[in-house]
Amino acid sequence: MTAALAGLRVVEVALGVPDVGAGLATHLPGRLLADLGAHVTHVRSRRRSTLDAGVESARAWDRGKEVVEVDDEELAAAAGTVAGLARDADVLLLAGAEERLERQGLTWAALSAANPRLVVVRLRPSATARGPLPDLELLVAARAGLLTQIRGSRPGPVFADLAIGAAGAGLSATVGALAALYERESTGRGGWAETSLYDGLQALLPMILGRVEHHSPTTALLWRDQGPAESLCYRCADGEYVQLWFGAAGAYEAFLEHMGEPPSERGYNADLMSGAMVERGRRWAAAFATREREHWLASLAGQRFRCEPVWRPGEALRDAHVREIGLAVPHEDPERGRLTVLGPAIRVTAAGNSAAAPVPAGGRLLEGVRVLDLSAYLAGPIAPLVLAELGADVVKVEPTTGDAHRSMQPMFAAGQRGKRALALDLKSPDAAEVLDRLFRWSDVVHSNARVGLAERLGYDETTVRAANPDVVHSFASGFGESGPRALLPSNDQLMQALAGIEAAQAGEGRPPTYLVWGAVDVTGGWIAAVGILAGLYARRRGGGGQSVASSLLGAGLTLKSGAFLAGDDVVVGPRVDAAETGYGAAYRIYRAGDGAWFALAAPDAAAWSALRRVVGVEGLSECPPPLRTAVAGPQPDELLLESAFAARPAGEWVRELSAAGVPVEPVVEADRSAFVAGVVDDPVNRQRGRVTDHVWGDLGRVEQPCLPPRLGPEPQPRAAAGIPGLGEHTAEVLALLGFDAGQRAALAANGSVAGG
Hints:
This protein is an alpha/beta fold. The protein has four domains: 9-137 and 163-207, Crotonobetainyl-coa:carnitine coa-transferase, domain 1 (Rossmann fold, 3-Layer(aba) Sandwich), CATH 3.40.50; 211-215 and 350-491 and 527-550 and 699-750, Crotonobetainyl-coa:carnitine coa-transferase, domain 1 (Rossmann fold, 3-Layer(aba) Sandwich), CATH 3.40.50; 248-304, no CATH class; 584-667, formyl-coa transferase, domain 3. Strands 15-21-20-19-16-17-18-31 form an eight-stranded mixed β-sheet, with helices on both faces. A seven-stranded mixed β-sheet has the order 3-2-1-4-5-8-30, with helices on both faces. α1 (19-35) runs parallel beside α6, α6 packs across α7 (197-204) and α14 crosses α21 (519-543). GO terms for molecular function: transferase activity. InterPro entries: CoA-transferase_III, CoA-Trfase_fam_III, CoA-Trfase_III_dom3_sf, CoA-Trfase_III_dom_1_sf. Pfam families: CoA_transf_3. This is Crotonobetainyl-CoA:carnitine CoA-transferase CaiB. Keywords: Transferase.
């Protein structure tokens, strides 16, 4: 069976960009495209950043790619190698400073003159109203205020281990490449897309980056308190941790009964939001501490509530379920030998007639593409929103009582903008006819229900494809569609536990840290969007109907995909220290004499040498010390720098170090509201059209970042501003499907549909 991207040639270029700081941005696009069948050549600098010394993440990220090294000290020669590869490529992904790329002639205009069908995707250095930033995740997070959006073990900002900006940039770059390729099949011409780490941060944090004029209690919980006080994560007798989740109906009550706890008078959500669960949590912590983790996993298995292990990065690759569903695969490394690395997070397969006629030309990007969104919560709706941002017409179907997240405004707003809303009772006798017409109308049908639910409600792939054989059918499951965990409910927090995100963020010897950002959910949406775009591209080339499969588990593991197994040993990237300040002397945050913090990222020997000159402290190493990749205490250089920086205010250090060429950035300390304001009110964000605002009924004005990337050269369509009311477009959509006024009235009268 032909792969969706078979025959495509992709060149992925990262010149002078360290893996520590931007690795997911510069490696993930090629990884995803290669897994979908493209031939990928990864071009990197022969001289590596000193931050990458001893960091082996690229061994996993570059599985199956052809790797080419260039001497980027000879900039003209390196640019010549890239330009030569671009002449025969379909997609060119470029990352690096302007002096290495644009000033050497590596621009879309110049490259497309030699190859008019070329799609160029640029990872640009980030820019805000305060000026440009290099491709270093830590500095972007510091400026954005992200480091104070983590509930750490001490007051003040905390180093962010999860590379949100790099992951978001890598995913949006991949979407940009595929959207431009889809359009190219219509026009015959290439185009360009661009994103950045700062854009990537906005791509993965829509749940916490929207501003609503009139806040609800749910908003207050997520904004002011950065999540519930009780994280439901407990240490067992062997020092290992488990993560609980009570999201399924009746799960909380079942757990209370199982643990011999008195029943709740007000229910799960009320106990969680009021803090009443904290006292219960103390008792649960004492109970879990009496037995080892394996006891609890066995004892609590098969219940309505969920109990999963909190693993460190890479440990999931040992798991039987992860291996069975293909998320752990062998890889022969030329130096390390046989490794186990993350397998494909998306699978796109031809499901119809492979000799089907190509799809006719449409409008700009996805204009003319019709998407049926049958998904819920946060992970599901993000994929159709990404498609809407590219011009697709999206119809969102939700129950007549409303989507479960309508009462949780931050989550609902994050994924529902720019869609038409149809309220339909899927259990009603007339639902099958409405769905059948929707299936026939659609180019894409996307859902994310638990395995088996779609079959019961009539929108499983077999039913959809019987009505429309050439549809692109996308199903985003929790744990995959097969394997021991397939039927289990899932959520963002459980995936953070399994993927190693909670453990890695915590720092050495600290309890796991839950990041209340929705980032795994949103990553799942972006990954599904990548698969859908690949399916649309294959279909437009005559591949017929396509099946797209992704999972929330795959999304979580993608965010930690630089970890791998060598034999049974886990090989990870840099580790956060116990003080939660960073990875080592050259990449961390420091507290200055005035109590303010600043971030320092010295990517090479020159920057470290300049740092030594400015600080003027005896005993600092002549060469940058490698970052921590194993359990270890503070580096001697860290202690020397901590002492030196404590002598003067942060502003003075930032000015002097910046003037000397050392990458530093003040850490913006902000509560959740100020963090949001720093993004949505940034003049550069506004000027570049990165922010949309609209009125959301009684909740008032809503301001949200638009999802990247930006595409050209023609103007890009965007999702319409506004979040639809319940059933706001029901009558409009039913009329579009051919239901006359009498039929529409009958559907409303018998409760099959709701809204106008």
